[in-house]
Amino acid sequence: MFNFNCDNTDKTVKNTKGSGKFRNVIILLLLVAVVVFILNILTYHNYLKYEEAIESVDVNSNGVITIYFTDKVSGYKIEDDRDMIAWSSLFDSLFKVNNQNSIILNPGGKRIPTTLLYISDGELDKTIFGDVYAEDGAGQITLPKLAIGMYISLGAIVIVTLLILRFLFRKYIFIQNIISVVTMIPLSYIISAFLIKGFSTSSHDIMRDFWFIGMMMLLVFMILLLLYLTRLEEVKKD
Questions:
Q1: Is residue 28 part of a domain?
Q2: Beta-carbon neighbour count of residue 64 at 10 Å?
Q3: Which of 28, 53, 112, 223 could connect to 48 by a Cys-Cys bridge, CB 3.0–4.6 Å?
Q4: Residue 5, SS3?
Q5: Are residues 95 and 114 in the same domain?
Q6: What is the rounded distance in angstroms from the CA atom of residue 176 to the CA atom of residue 192?
Q7: pLDDT tens figures, 178-234
Q8: Residue at 62 is within a domain
Q9: Which residues of 19-58 are buried (b: 16+ CB within 10 A; e: fewer)?
């Protein structure tokens, strides 16, 4: 009277369990990605102009050079013993921590052989101290690094190339699957770069930005891969 197809029922249960596992992992990865996104926003470097960052520069009788920062400054960086830039962050503004008050550039009055310029994002560099060219840094503008945007362009070229290959090998499912997975790598980078940097891909602190992009890229790649595997499972069931 009753005809139960146990084999099909078992397969359906197994497929449902498999999809459920993927779904749970995807949700977990999405939550971690949200945490990384929020951390990036909280610690994002909002670069300050000279007037916003530097309160005064003092040279005492022993030749010790001290730079006094305004209360807006959360951190600073000096590159190549020549270029300085300072920033504020949302985290430090909200919780009033890690504010830099001052730095001594040459403890003990040690002679500094180079001129220190302050990088004002998009404006002329300012001379903090040194014997060069007055306060405008000799008309020099230090540009941010553009590597993030260059890699986005390279990733887009790689994606287009892989899509062409996928079309050429459209009759070979195994090769198509491999190409699809490989395509997720540059796609994950592009998505992550926009999530971390928005539409401004230039950077004065590229290592910090690449660190966040790398974390987000790994999460996005894993999410895309699991979504793809879930789709393959659904196709097999059909």
A1: yes
A2: 15
A3: 53
A4: coil
A5: yes
A6: 24
A7: 999 999 999 999 999 999 999 888 888 889 999 999 999 999 999 999 999 988 887
A8: yes
A9: eeebeeebeebeebbeebbeebeebbbebbebebbbbeee
